[in-house]
Amino acid sequence: MTDRASPRITVDRILHPASVAVFGASDDRSKWAGRIMYYLALHGYAGEVIPINPRRQIVQGKTCYARIADAPHVDVAIIAIPAPLVPATLRECADAGVGCCLIISSGFAEVGPEGAALQREISELSRRTGMRLVGPNCLGLINVLNGMALTSARVLEVERLHRGRIGFVTQSGAIMLSIFNRAHDVGIGFSHLVSVGNQADLDLADFFEHMIDDPATAVICLHVEGLRDGRRFLDLIRRARRAGKPVIALKTGRSELGEHAARSHTASLAGAYPVFEAACRDAGVVLVDDPDVMVLVANMLARFGAPTEGGIALLSPSGGINGIVADRLADANVPLAVLRPETRQSLCEVMLPTHLDNPVDLGARRQELGETNAVAARAVELVAADPGVNAIVIALTTSPNYEATSKALGAAAVASGKPCFTIITPGSVADGVRAVLREIGCPYGDRIDDGVRMLAAYTRYVPTSRVARAPDAKPGRASLLDLRTGYLTEPDAKALLARYGIPVTRERVVRARDEAVAAAEAIGFPVALKAVTDKVVHKSDAGLVELALADPDALGRAWDKIRRRLAILDPPADTLLVQEMVSGGLELILGAKRDPGFGPVVMIGSGGILVELLRDVQLALAPIDPAEAEALLRGVKAWPLLEGYRGRGRLDIPAVASALSRLSRLAVDLGSRLGEIDVNPLIVRTDGHGVVAADARAVIAPETQDQDL
Ligand code: ADP
Ligand code: MG
Question: Whose CA is nearest to atom 16 of ligand 1?
Answer without folding.
Answer: 608
